[in-house]
Amino acid sequence: MSRQVDVAIIGAGSAGLFALSQVRRKTDNFVLIDGGELGTTCARVGCMPSKVVIQVADDYHRRTIFEREGIDGAESLELDRPAIMEHVQDLRDVFVDRTLGVTDELDPEHLLDGYARFVDAHTLEVNGEQISAKSIVIATGTTPVVPAAWQAFRQDIITTDEVFELEDLPASMAVIGLGSIGLELGQSISRLGVDVTGVDVVENVAKLADPDVNRLAVDTIGKEFPLWLGAAAELEKVDGGIKVTAGNNEVIVEKVLASLGRSPNLADLGLESTGLELDDKGIPVYDPTTMQCGDSHIYIAGDVNHDRALLHEAGHEGRVAGYNAVRQSSQRFKRKAMLGITFCDPNIAIVGEQLDELDASEILIGEVAFAPVGRALIMGKNRGLLRVYVNKTDGLVRGAAMACVKGENLAHLLAWSIQQGMSVHDMLKMPFYHPVIEEALQAALYNVVGHIEKKEEVVELEPVES
């Protein structure tokens, strides 16, 4: 049994659904293929349920400054962790249901419940049926990594896909891998009364390339739970749980949260039948401005391409892939300014180009410490650092890194400014209200503006042309 379609999309996650939104504008002759649980990674196991845990943990942690604010009774607050996990799951289900609206309206001709495999470059096999497509979008997503050596005690290891299914939290946990999700969950679970130890083989957290910002983040978060950095974790099953060893440190914990990254779901696709060129990680070589694999009719989008594993990037890539796939074209689209946010406390954010991508001789760094920032002091969150990287010659803003309160908001202002090609002078002409956290950004810009080679007499004022 076989049929022909204009576009076949493999994967109904965020990238696949955004690709579908473009395809449906041009044709009804498409098929969306997915063999797993419907609902995006973000809604089911990523961005959204993690933020519920973070919110509950932050609300409870706020009690630690009640006494200085003149609020009594903090010691009477109690945690009901099973109720917390039920709340997380309830909201998670709400978020998942919202993503199912698109797939719920698709009939069985357009939505196939099964796993696709390439027969050749134009043909897929799904549940014994062969589908010939003019264009194909690969958007199969990723799966959490669990090392083979750990499989012997897999029942004691929780992945980031599984943590939100827990009915209760363990008494102790080692979080191995301190990227965004590991750091967020490690701090939140610690604030909910779990004895947490964080471990990572690298010295930096949340992909911070700026040593000053990284140092502040590690020092601040490390006051809440131990962070063992710079040594690989080794696990051993022992009486009472799992012994985790990293360098000269060791601890026995009830469970291990594996946050070691995610592996692209490509192994069973049969890519060897496509003739596509693969990189050293087995991922099809593609153009990130078109999402086209080589000069083929196959496109790739979302986490599966192992580039920018972020929802808004998956949305952009999916739209580009869908647009080009339905037209069998290679239209190039500008990438968005890099924006990555870790919702720990303080927020960690990276924007645009980072220090390890820039020539130190060509840039200036404007920075501000948050200790004297009025709004941050009022909030009891005035431990932070913001560093902005700008061209030495003209003040063009190139990137930034920060660990500070409301970094999620500051990062957006910077990302929008970078994408618009703004300089420090341009940004200082924008309004800054008082008292707000955004005044810290204004201070960082003033910190550097005087050192820019191309001077402007009055940077804050914009003359009106007569």
Write structural notes for this entry:
There is one protein chain. With 466 residues, this protein is an alpha/beta fold. It folds into three domains: 2-144 and 263-327, FAD/NAD(P)-binding domain, CATH 3.50.50.60; 148-260, FAD/NAD(P)-binding domain; 339-449, Enolase-like, domain 1 (2-Layer Sandwich). The chain has eleven helices and 22 strands. Strands 1, 2, 3, 4, 5, 6 and 17 form a seven-stranded mixed sheet that branches. A hairpin with a 2-residue loop joins strand 13 and strand 14. Helix 3 (47-61) packs parallel to helix 5. The radius of gyration is 24 Å and the shape is globular.
Features:
11 helices; alpha/beta; FAD/NAD(P)-binding domain; 28% helix; 466 residues; single chain; Enolase-like, domain 1; seven-stranded mixed sheet; five-stranded parallel sheet; 22 strands
In terms of per-residue confidence, which ranges show pLDDT below 50 for 5 or more consecutive residues? none
The residue fraction in helices comes out at 25-40%
Specify the CATH class of the largest domain. Alpha Beta
How many beta-strand elements? Answer: 22
Strand fraction: 15-25%
Number of domains: 3
The assigned structural class equals alpha/beta
Q: Mean pLDDT, as a whole number?
A: 95
CATH architecture classification of the largest domain:
3-Layer(bba) Sandwich
* CATH homologous superfamily classification of the largest domain: FAD/NAD(P)-binding domain
Based on CA atoms alone, the radius of gyration comes out at 24 Å
- Quote the distance from N terminus to C terminus: 73 Å
- The number of helical segments is 11
Overall, the morphology is globular
CATH fold-level name of the largest domain: FAD/NAD(P)-binding domain
